[in-house]
Write a structure and sequence with these properties.
- The chain is globular, with a radius of gyration of 24 Å.
- The protein is built from 15 helices and 24 strands.
- The protein is α+β, with helices and mostly antiparallel strands and 569 residues long.
- The longest helix has 24 residues, at 218-241.
- The strands form 6 sheets. An 8-stranded mixed β-sheet has the order 1-22-18-21-20-19-10-11.
- The two termini are 47 Å apart.
- It has helices at residues 3-19, 75-88, 106-117, 158-167, 203-211, 218-241, 247-254, 258-273, 282-294, 308-321, 366-372, 381-384, 425-428, 455-469, 531-549; strands spanning 32-37, 53-54, 61-62, 98-102, 121-125, 137-139, 145-147, 153-154, 173-175, 179-183, 191-195, 301-304, 326-329, 333-338, 344-349, 354-355, 359-362, 394-401, 412-413, 419-424, 439-444, 483-491, 516-518, 567-568.
- A hairpin with a 5-residue loop joins strand 6 and strand 7.
Amino acid sequence: MFSAPVAAAGSSLASLGQAAKQHTCHAPPCSRHSLRGQPRQMRPAPFGRSRHACGRGKMQVVCADFPRPDFYNTDGFQDAEALSKELMTAPRPERPLRVVIAGAGLAGLSTAKYLSDAGHIPIVLEARNLLGGKVAAWKDKDGDWIETGLHIFFGAYPNMMNVFRELGIEDRLQWKEHSMIFAMPDSPGEFSRFDFPDLPAPLNGVVAILRNNQMLTWEEKIKFAIGLLPAIIGGQDYVESQDHLTVKEWMEKQGVPRRVNDEVFIAMAKALNFCDPDELSMVCVLIALNRFLQERHGSKMAFLDGAPPERLCTPLVEAFQAKGGELHYNARIKQILVGEDGGASGFQLVDGRVIEADLYVSAAPVDILKKLVPDPWKQNEYFTKLEKLKGLPVINIHIWFDKKLTTVDHLLFSRSDLLSVYADMSTTCKEYKDDKKSMLELVFAPADKWIGRSDDDIIAATMQELERLFPTEIKADQSLAKIEKFAVVKTPMSVYRTVPGCEAARPSQRSPYPRFYMAGDYTKQKYLASMEGAILSGKLCAQAIVQDYNTKPAPAAPKQDKVPELATA
């Protein structure tokens, strides 16, 4: 439906591409990435907490970081803290077990961290030369970070918040005003906001919804609230029972007006799972809403003060390396080897080397794991049901402009057909701070029809959308703000597409086969396929191993007592 605008804007992008110097950088093999535009000089800019108003229309957003929420006394955080303490204080094993973990994303690093806390020796094998998995990032030739996604940390992420506290890096989260801000499609350049007052949940959420009169009428608000009552009362059990319905079907069943879908849920669905509400399982939205409505600070958002590999992943690695753990790059798994008893007996790498240990953990994305499952295991329901879980494509875009745009210090829901959420990272993030020029990071979703399109097509379509969002500052033909350079990162298979019926397909961390465990945001835990879900899955994987081995006689030591000739981080 966007072929005409793309063609119109494409000519200006083509002209820019011909004149621009081509930039290259080392992109991760699982993502496709390009970088084009005029080179620019890096300018160090100190981060200041200036309190100037910024916004458009009726908006007023203060551009400053806000105090860290007091979520330490919430049930969620205390549960997360209790699980950490259980692992840290678990009986020490008779012999520290060597546990090989495939994947250095958040799930693999979390598994390694908590296994080392419990007295074991994690050995993390990463297929690439990058940390982070779905939160990976790398620098271009100018020294600018290119990220695989726009990552937001919510107050409703108790296990993630607990990790930051355990690592002593809480000050790396930049908390923003407790608001949700939406673009207004019918009023270009204006935004509508839901401001959460400092009141107990769910009252703060109710007040935020009631005070917003731009997006929903009073009748729609009341019907929406009535529709949500079962989720508020029934909690997690009710949430998981709705997995047979799409968002659209659930709203029709609950009598929620269609305009609530058009005004709110399309944007929310694309932000949560990069797809539209007519295919998204309602369980995905209800999990988020349940956390937001039950926890005072659940919907409060923070940006990391820099790139995730440096500011979050590296401290996790340092934590388990300090206790004897290891991290090896460029160690791609070819197959899982099976022993005489039917259990895992080794990981064979693509170069033929075999890695042996006491136990084995797959912390790879579900689509990769499905390719690694050994033939003798493939007919087991534990693995056959994984066919329901399929990664969906997502495109992350960075655009550096030659001037500072009038943006806000927050995440913004675009409510456009092509863009999910975006942020001006030159305003929201310390490391990317620039008072003179903007760098927008945008999530292009749904991306099914665009993942195979050229980068010029994608940027042209994005500029059309940005012209609507910034009508006085951006034109698709670049007659106003001009693109200095851009980066397009394509991930063909990101988080699994949360369609109805997926909850039953999510596997536990303990497999039915000896010595083999799994971690990953797709495995069974009470959160979404998210950073929080990845961290929690790693803790649950470590817990399963501790329960199975810490109080029992250690198995016979593997013949191989070290990883052979691998690059060590």
